[in-house]
Amino acid sequence: MISLDWTLFLQFGNFIILLVILHFLLYRPLLRIMEERRQATEGGHERARELEDEIQSRIKAYRDKLHEAKTRASEERAAMRTAAAEEERRILAEAQQKSSAQIQSVRDQVAKQAEEARKGLRSEAQDLARQVASKVLGRSL
User: Fold this and answer.
1) Contact assessment for residue 130 and residue 141, using Cβ atoms and an 8 Å cutoff
2) How do the pLDDT tens digits run along the chain, 141 residues long?
3) Phi and psi (nearest 5°) for 3?
4) Residue 42: CB atoms within 10 Å
């Protein structure tokens, strides 16, 4: 059985002194270390959030640049197609002009040769007609 005498107060005092000593020697450093760990953990989480935000912003910037590059490439492709079409039209028009000029030159040449052939044939026809007439009439014309 427990007796209630002056030793109880002495044990109670020792307990209080022990609590104070433990508070300064054990609890306070332990709480300080736990607080530092908590802050380090929260700091790590905060740093991870910051890094995640930075990564997301870089990914967005990369996607924006990629989209811009694709847009520029399609615009340049369209411009090149337009320029190629213009060049094709120019080359075709030039070729058509050259072919028209050559065709006209050939036509003129053929017409000139045909005219020369007609003149030659007329003179030959006149000579033949004279010969036939002289043979039919029996005298020279």
Assistant:
1) yes
2) 667 788 888 989 999 999 999 999 999 999 999 999 999 999 889 999 999 999 999 999 999 999 999 999 999 999 999 999 999 999 999 999 999 999 999 999 999 999 999 988 988 888 888 888 888 887 776
3) -105, 140
4) 10
Helix (H, G, I), strand (E, B) or coil at 9: helix
Residues 6+ apart with CB under 8 A from 130: 141
CA angle 132/136/140 to nearest 5° reads 75
Count CA atoms within 13 Å of residue 115 on its CB side: 6
Looking at residue 12, its amino acid is F
φ and ψ of 5, to 5 deg: -135, -165
